[in-house]
Amino acid sequence: MTPSNPARRHLLASTAAAAAAGLGVLSPAQAQTAARPPVVRAPRLRPGDTVGLFSPSGATYERAPFEIAAETLAALGFKVREAPNARARRGHHAGSAEQRAADIHSLIADPGVHGLLAVTGGSGANRVLPLLDYAAIARNPKVIAGFSDVTALLN
Questions:
Q1: Cα–Cα distances in angstroms (integers) from residue 21 to residues 13, 31, 70, in the given order
Q2: Can you tell me the distance from the alpha carbon of 15 to that of 13, in angstroms, rounded to the nearest whole number?
Q3: Is the pLDDT of residue 32 over 80?
Q4: Alpha-carbon distance 143 to 103, whole Å?
Q5: Could you tell me which of 152, 49, 56 has the C-alpha nearest to residue 102?
Q6: CB contact at 8 A, 139 and 73
Q7: pLDDT value at residue 2
Q8: For 71-86, what is the mean pLDDT?
Q9: Which helix (H) or strand (E) holds 53?
Q10: pTM of the entire structure?
Q11: Given this model, what pLDDT does residue 74 score?
Q12: Residue 83 and residue 50: Cα distance in Å, rounded?
């Protein structure tokens, strides 16, 4: 079987859930539910939508990445909104973990923003994860895109 085989994925998820149930971590009913969490999908971005630029990881030391991102998004028909702390700096990070989490929360909560684009990668996105309001993100699903360290957030 290949790693992308659906039967294998189901077997692995079921085995993990059964192991958790066997350890007393989950009841059998909880294990069945835990094996298949609900899928939350963000609406597709369309021209005219607003994309929020944010920096969940490393600081940006030059203006060019923001300008290039904004110009490229505009050329694709999107409006751009920059998060308040997107250009902040604290050491090699784009502000404190609290500032970076606040930016994500503000963009998620803003009904005028339809998607989020991380301008930077680097390191530090994992420090934001414990600070996020996942229930708010699930209530307001939006496309979140980025690269590098931002994979921690994307997952």
A1: 12, 6, 49
A2: 5
A3: no
A4: 15
A5: 56
A6: no
A7: 46
A8: 95
A9: strand 50-54
A10: 0.73
A11: 96
A12: 12
